[in-house]
């Protein structure tokens, strides 16, 4: 449920990031923009109208985890709640052979004990501005796709810098409806983030991979951080009050979070490409890495600790993608998509104006996708870096490109090296997160082997990369020889600019330089021949849809703040009526039914404190609100804006939500607010933290 | 180390089975024919000459497990020793929710307690006859490849039937040197095989997947069966005496077993095809199934039990194939292959007679491999059945083809349905081995999904197979609807012949019928356009090699009995000198070093009895003898023909032996005979079984 983009690193989905679509909502469907909330639908279906202050408080209380998830302020003292599995990246980076915070959990009893995270960046959205006219004005009529791409990028890079310089905020131009609209999002950016509390993984991820994306569930998938400013807890005006009772059956609730990516309005040709190429490739890659990390992990406890977060990420992504592929391979889903597309195309055809503006959009998508298919593997291997997948290569590429891009005017830089994004790049680049050479070596050896398999052993670049050695030997040589684990070395290289990079004899820097030109070449092909044509075609479709369906539509997810709504509501699975929530007592029964063996073994703390707990306390609950990977950690609030739960997953039936929302059996899954307080008080003996919630 | 063919079911390697090659031996290299033992080399290097009786006793004491391994008679009362992981297939089929013999082991204290296996066939080789002239005579000069293929098959099918009718033995024509020679092997065939003893998997496979193919090792990878005839233990004249001391450092030893398949003399073009297509495809498939079975297993203890053998098979195959691919991707290995090939081709070119007979053989291999590449996926999906991989489909295919083939003259039948093989087919077909519908469904759903991915969603046959449903729904429908788990239903269908098959409404039979014609079509393409041209080309190369190198060469492995020799000998790994053997005491230390957690936890029996054991007893040892998957369970004997150990694995460095033997660090790994007796006596309190060994 975490944002799959971060989960599977730079996998295939990354290529999709800038695309987007529009949908006509049904039922409780929709990931709505905060500046275009679904007022009409809410009024009609639930008789509820969100007020300005209600929306503002929820928006400003929402927090984006740039590592790939969502969260919210739950006290005026900068306390942020998210999922354990969103915090896990930070926990992993703070852990060592001596202290495994993922396994044991972490508990600061005083603020002094809260420990600073290594490279965590949190963002709070403070402003949204429509800049569509300015971005579109930059593109001259009749310009080629390459010229359009370049002009649009320059406009975005410059606008962001201008705005950031003026406000001191993080400013991102967000492409909505795949080009239908451009909004400038301004964020407060926080990097002094400290770990407050995490439960043991055994209860945060109770049921493990078998129970992931399942319901009924029993997970305390929570984690607390605190934002500091000037070495003191951040004082916030906007945070969520804690509901006295928590979510109730049938209650109207809202989710405010950062859904990562959806493809709801892809054309059929585009979906077929996902089905036939992108998903199968991605799943093979995920399974390959899952097996690799499992093998590595089984060799010993320390290995298992080092690979834990990576392995979980692979398992989570594998299950999510497999569910997505199952949807794409389901003729019922595809049949509906075909019908919908035909209906829209017929309507466009029937309207002379629309027919002229958008009639050719579908065939444009089709031919862009065909080009995409032609360069797909090269793009994944070289530009997405799957051929060299390890942290040292990632750092080397960052260093090489930072030097190259910094030497250019801001307008001409690759998007991620635009002036306004450099702070975030540097945060990652100079992260003190540990790097394990043994793990790096097995990952790189496997990646190089895959590169040889796909690109071919006789490929000229493959031969240059391998330098006459086997993938294993070459990987060992590269990892052993590179000094990039040392942050001081990285800083020196970054400070030295192009000259330092060009004269570096670090073998990983040399590899990154070797593959940089071909990687840039395929990226340029992708941007000019795939991304831009798709953007133009989808913008036409979006405009046609606006004209036909009206404005009450929402854009596909873009890992930016969205508002969903829905009901707390059980469902029927294979004839069995599943309740709207589980209870703490159910967790103990679930463990017993599985022999209390990992991953169904509750931690000792929970076994010890069972007698104290109110076993009827609701634990996890299901709701119809529309979510997707990236929504992990999103607060669930009631009509009064009070926190009643925290999203941590969707059920198996919701995995098709990548492409289509269905509320018959698809559900989001959340931890109930009552369980959080009950556990903090009676399992973890933390009256103080429990009392701080919502205060 | 078990025969990879059986391990990975009908995977890519199956297509290779009938190919073979020749090699000029180096060092202790060679998997020698029992009727062409390497007398000269043994005499020169070790001053040893195997006598006729010595060879006969070893040959007749050797046992083939048709489920994919080797074994030997170790008492005059028909007691057969093999590996636990070879016996695991039988153990799994005898197990149920109530009794998990793989986990707990099995121990018959009396002969009355020995239990009959479900579908195990053991073979003992009693005769070898050269039938090359007769097989080759069947092929008319100037015949097309398709005609040659047909004529050769007819000759083989008929010869086998004729011989079987005459002798009452199982008779197989074995293609050696990929067509250079044809030998008729006659076997005694035993199917009343009873389980005598198996240790717990925790000690048989101590160290699990992490330690698989590793050394030092500490595995009691043994299992005892007893052959019965007329409900009484088989009395055998030829069995192995038990060595008093077991293997000693530097001692000359022999391995007699059934290596499954090697590609040592493939041309470079053929090896490149394995590297670029066969191995990557096979590894993706293995990883895919490994992940699938892991997920299924993690859902509960009973699931884990049901999938245990399958999952182990996948993990074993994955490690073996990955090692093979690493060899193929190693430019040093491929460089040597290129040099060798050039040397041979130059020598052929320099000899006018050879140049005429074999000069074009390499380009013939090249073009056959090209055709193979064109039909590779179709062949794997449809004929090897990867698109429908589950037991019920396997049974359905057997039934459909048995009916079709039985209606034809023996000469024209597909090889596996030749008259002389029908007993073995029926043994499998009517096996009472349990079939689990839930496991079948997840396997079939995944296979159908893969089929859709590779063949394409719009493929006409894909659409017919899926019948308008998603892979998951279709798999559920097929498995739920099929009654083929019931052996009586299978017998009825088999007895009913073609008519019963054609009128059956069992959905799996209907699926097998639907795909039969296209599957046969691609099989015929493979046989006529790939197999036969390769056979002819490789036969030419083999003849040229005989002419140039002489007759002291051995054929590639064919899962038939071979003799290897070598020394008990440690080696140096990354600068560390590894001893020729480990000890029982080492096992306890190894467990402790890994926190005694699975798979490094010794069973309770071993913990309890530690004080009684002589901890200095040698446990596992390494030897230079040439082995490959299928050799698992092979006896290791000394100059006197006494049993000193049992092969169960090779080290990582030996995985390249698929293509090239190297003895610098490559080693076979065996359980030491002394450890077996010590464990039987002191851990398992079985003085009787220990005393029976070698008696």
Can you walk me through this structure?
The structure is a homodimer of 695-residue chains. Chain A is of the alpha+beta class. In chain A, 48% of the residues lie in helices and 16% in strands. The first copy, chain A, contains 25 helices and 23 strands. The longest helix of chain A is centred in the C-terminal third of the chain and has 43 residues, at 507-549. Residues 4-24 of chain A have low confidence and may be disordered. The interface between A and B is large, with 41 and 41 residues.
Overall average residue pLDDT of chain A: 94
Residues in helix, % of chain A: 40-55%
- Could you say which overall geometry of chain A the principal axes of the C-alpha atoms support? globular
- Gyration radius of chain A, rounded: 24 Å
Low-pLDDT sequence parts of chain A: 4-24
Structural class of chain A: alpha+beta
Please provide the count of β strands of chain A: 23
Largest interface: A-B, 41 and 41 residues
Oligomer classification: homodimer
Strand residue content of chain A: 15-25%
């Amino acid at each position: 449920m975490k944002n799959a983009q971060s989960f599977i690193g730079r996998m295939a989905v990354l290529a999709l990031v800038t695309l987007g679509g529009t949908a006509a909502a049904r039922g409780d469907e929709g990931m709505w923009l905060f500046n275009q909330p679904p007022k009409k639908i809410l009024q009609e279906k639930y008789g509820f109208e969100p007020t300005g202050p209600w929306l503002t408080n929820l928006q400003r209380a929402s927090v984006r985890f740039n590592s790939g998830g969502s969260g919210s302020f739950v006290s005026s003292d900068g306390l942020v709640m998210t999922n354990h599995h969103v915090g896990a990246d930070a926990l992993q980076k703070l852990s060592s052979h001596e202290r495994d915070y993922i396994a044991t959990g972490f508990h600061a009893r005083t603020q002094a004990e809260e420990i600073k995270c290594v490279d965590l960046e949190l963002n709070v959205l403070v402003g949204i501005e429509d800049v569509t006219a300015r971005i579109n004005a930059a593109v001259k009529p009749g310009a080629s796709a390459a010229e359009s791409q370049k002009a649009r990028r320059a406009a975005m890079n410059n606008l962001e810098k201008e705005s950031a310089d003026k406000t001191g905020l993080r400013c991102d131009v967000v492409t909505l409806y795949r080009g239908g609209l451009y909004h400038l999002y301004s964020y407060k950016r926080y990097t002094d983030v400290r770990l407050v509390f995490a439960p043991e993984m055994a209860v945060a991820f109770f049921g493990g991979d078998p129970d992931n994306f399942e319901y009924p569930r029993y997970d305390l998938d929570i984690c607390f951080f605190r934002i500091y400013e000037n070495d003191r807890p951040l004082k916030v005006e906007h945070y969520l009050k804690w509901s006295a009772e928590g979510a109730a059956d049938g209650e109207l609730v809202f989710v405010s979070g950062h859904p990562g990516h959806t493809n709801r309005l892809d054309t059929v040709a585009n979906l077929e490409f996902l089905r036939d190429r992108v998903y199968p490739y991605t799943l093979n890659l995920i399974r390959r890495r899952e097996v690799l990390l499992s093998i590595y992990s089984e060799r010993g406890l320390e290995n298992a600790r080092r690979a834990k977060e990576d392995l979980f990420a692979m398992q989570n992504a594998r299950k999510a993608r497999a569910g997505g592929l199952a949807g794409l391979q389901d003729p019922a889903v595809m049949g509906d998509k075909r019908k919908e597309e035909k209906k829209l195309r017929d309507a466009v055809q029937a309207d002379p104006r629309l027919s002229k503006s958008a009639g050719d959009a579908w065939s444009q998508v089709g031919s862009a996708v065909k080009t995409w298919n032609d360069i797909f593997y090269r793009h994944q291997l070289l530009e997405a870096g799957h051929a060299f997948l390890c942290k040292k290569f990632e750092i080397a590429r960052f260093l090489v490109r930072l030097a190259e891009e910094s030497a250019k005017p801001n307008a001409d830089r690759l998007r991620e090296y635009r002036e306004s994004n450099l702070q975030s790049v540097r945060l990652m680049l100079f992260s003190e997160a540990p790097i394990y050479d043994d793990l790096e070596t097995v990952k790189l050896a496997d990646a190089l082997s895959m590169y040889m398999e796909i690109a071919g052993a006789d490929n000229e670049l493959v031969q240059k990369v391998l330098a006459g050695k086997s993938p294993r030997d070459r990987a060992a040589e590269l990892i052993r020889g590179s000094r990039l684990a040392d942050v001081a070395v990285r800083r020196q290289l970054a400070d030295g600019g192009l000259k330092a990079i060009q004269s570096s004899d670090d073998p990983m820097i040399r590899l990154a330089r070797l593959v940089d030109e071909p990687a840039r070449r395929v990226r340029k092909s992708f941007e000019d021949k795939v991304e831009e044509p798709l953007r133009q075609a989808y913008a036409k479709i979006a405009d046609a849809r606006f004209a036909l369906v009206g404005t009450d539509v929402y854009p596909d997810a873009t890992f930016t703040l969205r508002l969903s709504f829905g009901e707390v509501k059980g469902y029927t699975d294979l004839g069995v009526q599943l309740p709207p929530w589980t209870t703490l007592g159910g967790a103990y029964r679930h463990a017993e039914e599985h022999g209390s063996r990992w991953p169904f073994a509750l931690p000792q703390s929970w076994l010890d404190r069972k007698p104290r707990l109110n076993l009827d306390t609701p634990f996890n609950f299901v709701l119809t609100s529309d979510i997707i990977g990236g929504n992990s950690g999103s607060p669930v609030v009631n009509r009064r804006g009070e926190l009643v739960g925290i999203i941590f997953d969707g059920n198996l039936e919701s995995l098709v939500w990548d492409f289509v929302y269905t509320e018959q059996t698809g559900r989001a899954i959340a931890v109930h607010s009552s369980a959080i307080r009950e556990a903090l008080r009676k399992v973890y003996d933390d009256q103080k933290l429990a009392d701080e919630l919502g205060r």
